[in-house]
Design goal:
- The chain is α+β, with helices and mostly antiparallel strands.
- It folds into 3 domains: about 70 residues, MutS, DNA mismatch repair protein, domain I; about 150 residues, 2-Layer Sandwich (Alpha-Beta Plaits); about 140 residues, Dna Ligase, domain 1 (2-Layer Sandwich).
- Helices cover about 40% and strands about 20% of the residues.
- It has a 5-stranded mixed sheet with strand order 5-6-1-7-8. A 4-stranded antiparallel sheet has the order 9-12-10-11, covered by helices on one side. A 3-stranded mixed sheet has the order 3-2-4.
- Helix 4 crosses helix 5, helix 10 runs antiparallel to helix 11 and helix 13 runs antiparallel to helix 14.
- It is globular, with a radius of gyration of 23 Å.
- It starts with a strand and ends in a 39-residue tail after the last helix.
- The structure holds a DNA duplex.
Length: about 425
DNA sequence: TCTGGGGTCCTAGGACCC
DNA sequence: TCTGGGGTCCTAGGACCC
């Protein structure tokens, strides 16, 4: 048995944790630079607030309905996510944290222990609420895709109370026949359209297609989805939680940059984030893509990217920052209003199979990086930083509706006044 | 005044080589 | 009359997810 547990409108719910005054209100959270709406709490959803619409286009509507607006507070969300994941992880054999608010659970040795999955789901929900004040939905299924479907039902379909289970044909049909194609994990707008042209109307229809034909007409991915919808596991636990093949860090800049040093610092700090993420999954970076561009909405759209190949794959932040200085001059162009930039590891190697560089004196020093990560974990991000990543915040993102970092900054710790 | 997210994976097509 | 291979690498763009 698998489960998918995720938070209801996570960012919006996270904003409500330390601010009970907005718990019953309609709340939305904006993306970086307050660009688009990226989280809509149930109350706001009822008003019809759409997800991923540019904020400035819907500003008046939100004001009219007294919707509470918040900028993304990643420090807060990341910290609450850790707490939430810790609670959830206690309830299963294996947990795979799939995104900031979702985790897959695997139950190997529980089948004989649990006679009522519905109750068990509520146990998880209650524990998470009690310890973090975050509302979660729990979906159980015999494959990861069915667990996802059950999770959808738990949160979005009437008649469910935050928990849903797909463990036999009856429950499978009952839920899938009420789900649209694009509610199925792996089916987006495009595939949804193409499938509906073939007369496939909902998730249940899709489940009843021949996997072979789906493979021929579309791809092996759709075939896999069909199989999974029928309870045939195709995504093994290891496949669900494979290491990333690419790791990117990119961002739109709070304000446009023309300055050489400012852009260089911004890109360097992205590269350092990539390095940190690579270390987390024990990968080394062989090739790093570096890019910067103006806004695609501007005239004279400028975009330049370069690939730096390391002689020997590395996860060393210092070497990676160094690489930026090698390529930066070929990316920067005076006079361009840079709007986006970033870096991405596009070829990763497993550290276990590390090939040492015969000609390099300094080998990868895992101790240094371990220490570096530990300090930053203990004392907060940015405590130790490569100087080239810069201290100046000129390019920091725009966050006009930022809530306090209640759990990660001393000055923001909530005070209880009696 | 001006505003338009971020991450990952996959594939088609072009360039180049032998 | 018409015909012309196969592999690798790179890039841009598509698709999907949250």
């Amino acid at each position: 048995m698998y489960a998918l547990v995720d938070a209801v409108a996570y960012y919006a719910s996270a904003e409500k944790v330390f601010d009970p005054s907005i718990r019953r209100k309609a709340v939305v959270v904006l993306t970086n630079n307050d660009g688009c709406i990226c989280a809509v709490c149930p109350n706001a959803r009822r008003l019809g607030v759409p997800k991923f619409k540019p904020y400035f286009q819907i500003k008046n509507f939100l004001a009219k309905h007294n919707v509470v607006i918040r900028s993304s507070n990643y420090e807060l969300y990341a910290d609450l996510s850790d707490k939430m994941m810790n609670v959830i992880g206690r309830f299963c054999d294996n947990q795979y944290v799939y995104s900031i608010d979702e985790s897959f659970l695997e139950f190997k040795n529980y089948n004989s222990l649990i006679d009522d999955w519905h109750q068990y789901g509520h146990k998880i929900r209650r524990a998470v609420w009690k310890e973090t004040r975050l509302p979660v939905g729990v979906g159980f299924g015999t494959t990861p895709t069915l667990a996802k479907a059950a999770n959808h039902a738990a949160k979005k379909l009437s008649g469910f109370d935050g928990v849903a289970i797909i463990d036999d044909d009856l429950s499978r049909k009952a839920i899938l026949s009420r789900m649209s194609l694009t509610d199925v994990w792996g089916i987006g707008d495009r595939l949804g359209n193409k499938l509906s042209i073939l007369g496939i109307k909902d998730a249940w229809d899709l489940a009843n297609q021949s996997p072979r034909i789906m493979r021929n007409q579309f791809s092996v991915l759709v075939e896999r989805t069909v199989n999974e919808l029928n309870g045939v596991p195709c995504l093994s636990w290891d496949e669900v939680r494979q290491d990333k093949k690419e790791i990117f860090s990119t961002r739109s800049l709070g304000q446009r940059i023309t300055d050489y040093n400012a852009l260089k610092a911004a890109i360097t700090s992205h590269a350092c984030i990539v390095a940190r993420k690579a270390r987390q999954q024990r990968s080394l970076i062989k090739r790093l893509l570096v890019f910067a561009s103006s806004s695609p909405h501007d005239e004279n759209y400028y975009k330049k990217s370069l690939i730096y190949e390391f002689p020997a794959a590395t996860d060393n932040t210092i070497k990676i920052a160094e690489a930026i200085s090698y390529v930066f001059d070929s990316i920067y162009l005076p006079g361009v209003n840079f709007y986006r930039c970033g870096a991405g590891a596009i070829e990763l190697e497993n550290r276990r199979f590390y090939q040492q560089d015969m000609f390099s004196v300094s080998i990868n020093n895992p101790k240094l990086m371990k220490c570096y990560d530990k300090i930053n974990k203990r004392y907060g991000k940015g405590t130790v930083e490569v100087a080239a990543a810069g201290q100046n915040e000129k390019w920091a993102m725009r966050r006009n509706f930022l809530s306090p970092s209640y759990t990660s900054k001393w000055k923001d710790i909530p005070k209880i006044i009696c």
